[in-house]
Amino acid sequence: AIEGKNVYILLNKPVGYVTTAKDQFGRKTVLDLIDGVKERVYPVGRLDYDTEGLLLLTNDGELTYKLTHPKHRIEKTYIAHIDGIPNEEEMKRFREGLEIEDYVTSRAEIEIIKRKGKDSVVKIVIGEGRNRQVRKMCACIGHEVKKLKRIKEGEIELGDVKCGQWRFLSDEEVERIRKDKKILF
């Protein structure tokens, strides 16, 4: 029984929303932002309550599996406003893998985009997406995250979708996710 068509949505999640369908504490969920879509869509993976940016939602289980299963390692790109300015040694440690709690992070990228007084804005690319990982990695090298935004996941970019707004993915974007070689290990 086919219940409508597959729907693919790109949302620019604001801070203060949870990426679950329901929240036990009655907080706003990302589904509160998706209006006018009759199909039931679900967030693909998660984005922390206090993180904004790109979040995909769909009712396509196969695609969700492809995007979230650990063996598929999709690159996720973030822009972070951090406390202080990391030095070369700290960035080298960040790139090579950090010991956080009970695991060591995979290789990652970090580059300083600009300095803001005593702070800096960095671009970070990771291939895993464990709970609060970017924040934990930055804290591990001594630079707390003040603001965090995901701008890219695999081949899909946030672009100019405003905070709290969403759009449907184009057929071409959906096709790019399906064909994305980086995620087929």
Give short descriptive properties of this protein.
4 helices; 9-stranded mixed sheet; globular; 185 residues; two-stranded antiparallel sheet
How would you describe the overall organization of this protein?
This protein is globular. With 185 residues, it is of the alpha+beta class. The strands form two sheets. Strands 1, 2, 3, 4, 7, 8, 9, 10 and 11 form a nine-stranded mixed sheet that branches. It has a two-stranded antiparallel sheet with strand order 5-6. It is built from four helices and eleven strands; from the N terminus they run E-E-E-H-E-H-E-E-E-E-H-E-E-E-H. 18% of the residues lie in helices and 30% in strands. The two termini are 32 Å apart.
Spans where pLDDT lies below 50 across 5 or more residues: none
User: Mind describing the biggest β-sheet?
Assistant: 9 strands, mixed
Dominant shape: globular
Strand residues, percent: 25-35%
Structural class: alpha+beta
Rg on CA atoms, Å? 17 Å
The succession of helices and strands, N to C, reads EEEHEHEEEEHEEEH
Number of strands: 11
Total count of helical runs of at least 4 residues: 4
Termini distance? Answer: 32 Å
Mean pLDDT: 90
Say what oligomer this is.
single chain
Helical content (DSSP H or I, runs of 4+): 10-25%
